[in-house]
Specification:
Layout lengths: L3 H15 L5 E3 L6 H7 L6 E5 L2 E6 L2 E6 L5 E6 L13 E6 L3 E6 L3 E6 H9 L12 H8 L6 H5 L10 H11 L12 H21 L7 H4 L30 E5 L2 E5 L7
Antiparallel strand pairs: 1-6, 2-3, 3-4, 4-8, 5-7, 6-7, 9-10
Helix pairs in contact: 1-7, 6-7
Length: 268
């Protein structure tokens, strides 16, 4: 599932490409036909990202997209004033601007909302580390009320918005923290250190479009030709030696998701 940095990148890309101009909207698949028709030809006033939720504002109407596990939103430039080609596959929403078009496929949600409905969605979410209005104290308040493992709480979107499995595993490794440690056992200082690291890692993800979590001194140890996943400490490295201590990386299921950690560097 795309994590929060991907959604913020999409919001920025769509803002740059389409905001302030009239956008042609359609639903070639037909499942969003009414919503697309309502906003077709109107000016995209702004875009917004909150956690894993993407929003486009057309006057008082908001198009809400959640990519879920399989969704993609791909932008392609138009050459020489040509129109976009015929849609390929199940395109839920197509946006067409003056020099580019974007196709949405396979989202978990693509709906038309009022401003009040948008507010209701974001009100259910915890703070998003990529937003300027984020309050880490609000997340800490939720953490300290729970006996659940910190690894589970970091993935709970009502506690913290936008963090997925990769950031969860990597930030806990970087902190040397046992993923099964109860949330209520974290000190405020420990939480603020985790939060600060998440903010830095996720902002880097927005800039580069990928999740790279190795500290500079550890990147030097990578092979000349890095393989996928080489920029991470533990995520999807089950059984491979920890980059720091050599202990095999462990995996277990937690709340229906795979958890990765080093039992030596993250002692219980």
């Amino acid at each position: 599932m795309p994590e929060g940095h991907t959604i913020h990148r999409l919001a920025a890309e769509h803002r740059k490409r389409y905001a302030g101009t009239a956008v042609r909207l359609s639903s070639p698949q037909g499942r969003f036909a009414a919503g697309a028709a309502r906003c077709d030809g109107r000016v995209l006033e702004r875009t917004d990202a909150y956690g894993k939720h993407l929003f486009h504002a057309y006057g008082d109407d908001w198009i809400h997209v959640h990519l879920g596990l399989y969704g993609t939103f791909v932008t392609t430039e138009l050459a020489n004033g040509d129109g976009p080609p015929e849609p390929v596959g199940q395109v839920r929403l197509r946006m067409v601007g003056a020099d580019a078009y974007s196709d949405l496929r396979g989202p978990a949600a693509c709906t038309l909302l009022t401003a009040a409905e948008k507010t209701a969605i974001t009100a259910r979410l915890g703070p998003d580390p990529l937003r300027r209005d984020a309050d880490p104290a609000r997340a800490y308040k939720r953490l300290t009320r729970s006996r659940a493992p910190i690894a589970q709480l970091l993935m709970d979107q009502s506690v913290l918005a936008g963090v997925g499995n990769v950031y969860r595993a990597e930030v806990l490794y970087r902190a040397g923290m046992d993923p099964y440690r109860p949330g209520r056992d974290l000190s405020e200082a420990e939480w603020l250190e985790l939060w600060s690291d998440l903010v830095g890692l996720m902002k880097a993800g927005v800039r580069t479009g990928r999740i790279t979590t190795l500290r500079p001194e550890h990147r030097k140890r990578l092979p000349t030709k890095p393989q996928p996943g080489d920029g991470r400490y533990v995520y999807r490295r089950t059984g491979e030696p920890c980059r720091i201590c050599g202990t095999p990386v462990r995996t277990a299921e937690l709340a229906a998701r795979n958890l990765y950690w080093c039992p030596t560097c993250q002692p219980g």
